[in-house]
Design brief:
The structure holds two protein chains of two kinds.
Chain A lengths: L8 H12 L9 H6 L5 E9 L2 E2 L8 H9 L5 E13 L4 E12 L20 H4 L11 E10 L7 E10 L9
Parallel strand pairs in A: 1-6
Antiparallel strand pairs in A: 1-2, 3-4, 4-5, 5-6
Chain B lengths: L22 H11 L2 H5 L3 H5 L2 E6 L6 H11 L5 E5 L6 E5 L2 H9 L4 E2 L2 E2 L1 E4 L2 H24 E2 L4 E3 L7 H5 L6 H17 L6 E3 L14 H4 L5 E3 L23 E3 L4 H4 L4 H14 L5 E2 L2 E2 L3 H7 L9 E3 L2 H20 L8 E11 L31 H6 L2 E2 L1 H9 L3 E3 L10 E6 L8 E13 L19 H5 L7 E12 L5 E12 L5 H12 L10 H4 L10 H4 L4 H14 L3 H10 L4 H11 L10
Parallel strand pairs in B: 8-9, 9-10, 10-11, 11-12, 14-18, 15-21
Antiparallel strand pairs in B: 1-3, 1-6, 2-3, 4-5, 7-8, 12-13, 15-16, 17-19, 18-19, 19-20, 20-21
Helix pairs in contact in B: 1-6, 6-8, 20-21, 20-22
The chains are: A alpha+beta, B alpha/beta.
Amino acid sequence: MNQDPTQPIESFLKNFLNSLDSQYQPTSNVANYALQFGSSLKRTSALILNGKPIIPTPQEDSKLTFQKKWLSTPLTSHQLTSYDAHLIPGTGQFIINFSAKVKFDQSGKNRLGESADLIKEPTTVTNANSKPRPIWGSWNGIIGNLVVDETLQNECINSLDYRLTYIPQDSILKF
Amino acid sequence: MSYRGRGRGGFHNSFGGGVGGGTNQQNNNRANFGHHSQQQQIDAFTNSNQFPVEIMGWSGASSSECINFISRKCKVVVQNYSVDSNTGILKGYVKNEQQANLLLNWSGVKFAGQSLRFIKGTSNQASTTTSSSSTIETITQFLKTRYNPEIKMLNLSNVKQDPALNTHGFFSSVSITAKFFPALFKVANDLSLEVISIDLSNNELSELNQLVSLPQSFPKLQNLSFQNNQFNRIKVFETWKNKLNNLRELIIFDNPIVININTPQDINNLKLEFMKLFPRLVVLNGEILRDEPKLNMNLTFPFDSNSMFFENDDSRNLATNFLANFFKLWDSNRGDLMILYQNESQFSMQVDTSHPYLIDSNNSTDFGNYLSNSRNLTRVSGMNSRMNKLAIGQEAIFKSFQQLPKTQHELINKPNLFSVECYKFPSNNLNGLIITIHGIFEEIGQPELEQSNNNIPSGPRSRYIPQNKHKRHPLSKKCFDRTFTVIPDLQGSMIVASDLLLIRPYTSENAWEKSKEQPNITTQPQPVNTPSPAQQANIPSIENLPLEIKNNLSPMNQEILVKILIETKLTIQYALMLCEQSNWNYQLCMDNFKNSVASLPREAFV
């Protein structure tokens, strides 16, 4: 082989993980916000999270089901730490195995910045519109597997298997 | 003895003997009490083997430095040491008299500018050993009377008035009193008491320094009462910040901290401070601070966990057989696996040293046997080295296998250490199956072949290679993730098209086992409301909603409906009515429900 086919995968993976981490802008539309998550997934991608499949319904494909559910995770921050990939002959597809760290916002707010607190800080004009500041927990470990069209363009992810491998002892978040 | 007739007999065997005895005796006991927690860590059999020694002339450095010095220099391990606060003598135990004699020969050895002197311990210490173990017994006995296993509650209210503890002199002086709670928590920890609630009312507490170890001993603590103590500053609770992550209810009535504040602003600030310290605090002095269902939702990863996933029964059989056979041969004779690989098969291995893990000081994190072949593409950038680290075809793959340490995977004996996902390869051109396994293995032998030295440049530096070649890396446990793309062939056997192996640091706690134990914790907050097993089978969930109702509702409203069903125990028809009348606002639903619950007919409920 004259050319390294795995070369563009790194930025693709980073973009994919960034899309899962995108922050909500209080002014924007919630539906549009949710559609950013994993935008490179195909509508019919086979999705398995922590050993449980995302099951599409007649009304919602697997991608949308996933995006809606991801909306109810606290804010995340992923960091890619390792990956490797093989191009499977005759398929035009890569199989990618990656390893990453992920931390969660443990402030008790959801992704949309909604808090469960009934007692509020006295609001001042300055912090009323400011973005919620996340309180990051310790790093969790995840391992991901993807089958991706070799073009790496647009909606190209055929399957995603996302598995948490390590939960830190001081995690406030429950799994 | 001159003490005779002064007080109770037999004080040598009880903790509080010093009450009626001379000062010296009291001090000995006092010093000893603080160390009984270390005492417990020693098994019964070593207890019987211990020989007391005393060390003098050590004060040029700390006691632990001295003990470490003795261990290094004299090759004698002094355990369970303590400093006699009265005499300044460092006292401890060695294994037997022979070890003590060995130590005595070292008398005069220089340590931190002084000469150390060793003498054999006196019978005095032998008796305090007994006294210490009786302290543990007393505390154990006390715990038994104060622990209610049904509601997992530990009643530590007003401990100073406990007659049994007072008989043993636990609160005879300030310094002994200060050691009572740490000792108690240690004993409770050793007994593995599962505690959800603790009542610490009426204990004259104003600081947490006696209670620093409480979160560690009772990580599942949900309810805590400090009623009628002397807490007067929120600052003292800082040491517990984010350490009681399950604390749900705190009672702090009748403390200066609440008595002395008046303005609504100050009261509000106090609540906010406690909320910052305890992320799951819902009730403070009976007041609800947080919307609990919402809090639980916000602090729960919404995806359930399952350690094994198979797309169907066929893939279950195929994958379990494949993995069992593969790792049996991987551990015994990797050459026998080559039948699975063909000319176009690919194998590569990557190392991720930065994957998070629980530090285990007994396990080496040396990756030297893997690093030079690692195809972690975030770190290998040149095209040539990327391609060199990819093995294609039987011969190259077998060579790569031989360059990895010999291993043992306890797939059959300890299946909990592993997790598996298996699903169809998403391509119509390939009738393949993806099998991913995560878990732990142990290295049991060095690789058969040296790693290829792709990275080491040729030239003058190459003369240093032989030294590296003979370096043996320590063997240890590791975690791994391995993804096979397999294709069943016409004869019904399998071909591995792609084999991706990832090696990362060993961790004794894996996520799939950890997430399994969580439900136990979350069902405990309201033991009174815990439904019977028969009811549990019918717990409302989005999956269980009747389709005709589910299809008419947005996912958000489905979730609200399920929450209302769980909270109110209403039938689905009534719950729907409630939601519609409350504009699908969860809080409004609950308010309306509370207002009208008395007037609802019996048939409104499940």
